[in-house]
């Protein structure tokens, strides 16, 4: 079991659990966390639009299985397809921030 004594911030917890920023373990965790966020945003937006995965796929010109993969945080997402899903399928804009 991991010792959490002395941990005072979320950043310290992340470092203890997944390593320092830039390590393979931390990069893998960060990638999965970002994928989870995107998946939840897509699910929420699709439900707000009252669309099924199939309906969204048809509007965005992709497959239901691709929508499902994104919503379940599985596989890789092609940025151009993700933008098309949000902008064409859901009539929403995507903003990107690079740090």
From TrEMBL:
Tell me the Pfam families matching this sequence.
Answer: HTH_3
Q: Which InterPro entries match?
A: Cro/C1-type_HTH (IPR001387), Lambda_DNA-bd_dom_sf (IPR010982), TransReg_Diox_bact_type (IPR050807)
Instruction: Please name the SMART domains in this protein's record.
Output: HTH_XRE
* Heme in keyword set: no
GO CC terms, sorted = cytosol
Does the keyword field hold DNA-binding?
Answer: yes
- Entry keywords, A to Z: DNA-binding
Q: Which GO terms describe its molecular function?
A: DNA binding; DNA-binding transcription factor activity
The HTH cro/C1-type domain is annotated at 42-85
Superkingdom of origin: Bacteria
Write down what this protein is called: Helix-turn-helix
The source organism is Saccharicrinis carchari
């Amino acid at each position: 079991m991991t010792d959490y004594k002395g941990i005072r911030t979320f950043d310290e917890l992340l470092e203890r659990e997944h390593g320092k920023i830039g390590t393979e373990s931390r990069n893998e965790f960060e990638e999965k966390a970002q994928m989870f966020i995107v998946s939840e945003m897509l699910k929420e937006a699709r439900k707000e639009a009252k669309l099924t995965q199939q309906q969204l796929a048809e509007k965005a010109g992709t497959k239901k299985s691709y929508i499902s993969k994104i919503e379940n945080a599985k596989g890789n997402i092609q940025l151009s397809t993700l933008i098309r899903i949000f902008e064409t399928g859901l009539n929403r804009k995507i903003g990107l921030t690079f740090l």
